[in-house]
Amino acid sequence: MKLPSSQRIAFIKKKSHIWRAFARYLAQMSYGKCWYSESNDPQSFFDVDHFRPKGEAIREEEQKDEGYPWLAFDWMNFRYSAQRSNRLSTNDASGETEGKGSWFPLLPGSKKATWDDRCESEEKAILLDPTCKEDVALVDVGADGRIIPSLICVGTQRVRLKRSRELLGLNLENLVGARKKAIRDVNEQFDILSKTLAVANQIEEAADGLPVYESFRQLRRWSRPDHPYSLTIRAALTRLGAPQICAPPEELDHEKSHDSALDGALNPQRKS
Fold first, then answer.
1. Alpha-carbon distance 147 to 138, whole Å?
2. pTM, whole model, 2 decimals?
3. pLDDT means per 10 residues in the chain (272 residues)?
4. Do the beta carbons of residue 52 and residue 68 sit within 8 Å?
C-alpha cells in the first residue's frame, strides 16, 4: 500500500540501515576514497550520500521541495562521501556554510522530477555526478592544489563546476593541502627519474643498473585510481610533460597483473 506523502519521511528515516549497509561496498568501488573529493582521510567519517536528496531538495535560497523520496532505497542514487562534502558545516575561516546537505539545484529551464512524474533522467542538474564520465571530465587540478575547470569545461559547464566546488567543499584548505603534498611528491619523484635518465643516456654501460623503472613504476602507481588524489597526480604529470606515465583507470587490473609478472621475472626465487 502506498504511504501518504505526510508519512514518507518518517518511514524513510526508520529504514536508514538499508543505505548504510551499502557503505562498505561503495567504499570498495573507490578504494576507500570519497567519490567527490578523492580523499581517504582515516580520521574522517564517511556517509552514504543520496545524490538526489531523499527528504527535501533545496533548489536555491528560500526555495525547496520534497526532493526524491522514491529514490531513498535506490542504490543507483547512493554516493560514498566524506562528511565534509555531504553534511553542512561552517568554515571557520570564511564563516560560510559548506557541504551538500539537501542541496540539489537545477539549471534554469530544466524539468523537475516529482513523485508523479519521475523524469529525473531529463533533469539538468547543476551538481557534477562522480558516476558520470562526462561530468568527471570537466574537473582538473591546478598547480596550487585547487579544483579548476578542465580544458573542455566551458560555458554552462563552468557554472556547474563552480557551484559543485562550493557545495561539495572541494577546495577546503585541508584538501588543498593534501593535493599540494601529492604534487610535491610527484615533482620530487619525477626529478629523480629525469636525473636518472640523464645519467643512463650519458653513460650507456651504467644504464642497466640504474633504477629507471622503479621511479617510473612509482609514479604510475600513484596515478592509478586506487591511490588517493589520483586526479591530482595525473594533472601534475601532465603539467610536467609526461602524461604517458599516467595509468588509465581501466588498466588497474592489468597493471597489477603486469607488476606481478614483472616481479616474478625479476625475482624467480619467489615462485618457489
1. 10
2. 0.85
3. 78 94 95 95 87 95 92 97 88 74 96 95 97 97 97 97 95 94 97 91 82 90 94 97 87 56 47 42
4. yes
Q: Give the phi and the psi of residue 197 in degrees, each rounded to 5.
A: -65, -40
Q: Which three cell numbers stand for residue 70?
A: 522514491
Q: Which residues are registered as beta bridge partners of 50?
A: 78
98 in Cβ contact with 170 (< 8 Å) = no
Parallel, antiparallel, or unpaired: how do β-strands 97-98 and 89-90 relate? antiparallel
Which long-range contacts link 71-75 to residues 24+ away (Cβ below 8 Å)?
A: 71/120, 72/12, 72/15, 72/19, 73/15, 73/18, 73/19, 75/19, 75/22
Contact 146, 176 (CB under 8 A): yes
Strand (E) or helix (H) holding 148? strand 147-149
Contact predicate 19/78, CB 8 Å: yes
